[in-house]
Amino acid sequence: MKSRVWWPAVAALALLKLAVHVYCSSRYGYFRDELYFIACGRHLDWGYVDHPPLIAIYARIGELFGPSLRGFRLLVSLAGALRIVLTGIIAARLGGGRTAQFLACLTVLLSSMYLAMDSILTMNTFEHLFWLGCLLIVIEIINGADEKWWLLFGVLAGLGLQNKHSMLFFGVAVTAAMLLTPLRRSFLRPWFWLGGAIAALIFLPNVIWQVQHDWATLELLRNVKESGKNVVLAPIPFVVQQVMMLNPFTAPVWITGLIGLFVARPLRQYRILGMIYILVLVMFIALEAKDYYVAPVYPILFAAGAVAIEWWVRSRVARAAIFAFVIAGGLIAVPLVLPFLSPASYLRYAKAIRAKHQETEVSHTSELPQRLADQLGWEEMVRKVARYYHSLPPEQRKATAIYGSNYGEAAAIDFYGPKYGLPPAISGHQNYYLWGPRGYTGESMIVLADRIVRTRPLYESIVVIDQRFHPFAMPEENGPIFHCRTRRPLSEIWPSYKYWR
């Protein structure tokens, strides 16, 4: 039985989260992927090699705020605050009173994964909103709402697919779980199927783009799997990492929620939510996905756990102890996931509490978490490139391409380059490959790479002209800067530069 939303508490925690992220959002610099998304936003399309189109639109909106990092990340800060609001509403719809709503929102606020994720502009935070919006509709239908709500479910699912393709696995989990609960009756009515048709229609432009580009994303995914790029966790370590990434101090709440959805009397009618979580978890383990892919569903478990705790724990002292436990654990973790500290201070703090970060890709070996390290060193790199570029004779300068071995390097040139008088960069990495060599011949190329191995046979000459270095940047970005000349025109050998991984 649903309760009224305790708006003062829900809104206060949402505003607190918004304020914290706005304050922290300019402490470091632009994240590697943010620079790439800005480049994609300047080439708007219905698809990209490694993501659907919505993230490029978010970046385009963020650019309206000029060079301000706070402005650029305001959209994701607002989305993170909205996650708190949706969690409070869901807790109320599950029958939670004020204690449950406050505890649910508090645990989501202090969960390490969400604090870290909402500090940079990526598609992940927005993915959570689409999942939660769809699950809230499922809850409303269980509570007796008109089944026409499946139409809105379809709209959110379609937009979610245009945000991140993993929404497809969420849809599979929801559909499979419905078969095991009374919600399967929805299959006998038109609204569920019409909702599915709406989702497919919204997603269709990206499918058409994929067809036109020979299913580029599937090719990328095959390459990633074959390369062993991602850290693959066995089932038990994968589950353990769920506890760690969300903050172990909040784990008792979401674990209680998972159990409560199957055994707690006020929650059993919502057991489909627990089934969806289990199905999502199993699918992503089987697919050897990154551990954070399961993160969108946890606010549901936090809400259910808070409701179960409110139902089972009647003592005010015990409830206060639970709140204190969650808050203490959250405050310990905050300096590890938000950029409050300088890099050196971060490392001292992490060492003091013996904290280690879990990498999701095998090549990331920096002392700092990639999320922080990949915000450092980009403009310094561009300045070094500009210094050499402007030392060239004018005629040679006009013919000189600037090549980034990955999209971070190329996107940094595109973003910071105009300030230093540099032309747009080229690269064979991800969507940059599709944007081509921009008319350059290859007779003069400034190449950014930690080493030249794969493309070495393409060059007639390779000269090291400078060295990039930032003490806290990702190690692969502390490499040489080369001046090269290709053996054949760049237009002829461009397919050899393709690097989708």
Q: Average the pLDDT over all residues and give the rounded result.
A: 95
> Which band does the percent of strand residues land in?
5-15%
Strand order of the largest sheet: 1-2-4-3
Number of helices: 24
Tell me the radius of gyration. 24 Å
Total separate domains: 2
The oligomeric state is: single chain
Order of secondary-structure elements: HHHHHHHHHHHHHHHHHHHHHEHHEEEH
DSSP helix fraction:
55-70%
Report the span from N to C terminus.
Answer: 48 Å
Principal-axis shape: globular
Structural class: mainly alpha
Tally of strands: 4
The low-confidence runs, each spanning 5 or more residues with pLDDT under 50, are: none
Sheet bearing the most strands, described? 4 strands, mixed
Write out key terms for the chains shown.
58% helix; mainly alpha; four-stranded mixed beta sheet; single chain; 2 domains; 24 helices; 501 residues
Q: Brief overview, please?
A:
Helices cover 58% and strands 5% of the residues.
Give structural notes:
It is a single chain. The chain has 501 residues and is mainly alpha-helical. The chain folds into 2 domains: 331 residues, no CATH class; 120 residues, no CATH class. It contains 24 helices and 4 strands. Helix 1 runs antiparallel to helix 5, helix 1 packs parallel to helix 6 and helix 14 packs across helix 15. The two termini are 48 Å apart. The relative contact order is 0.11. The model has no long low-confidence stretch (mean pLDDT 95).
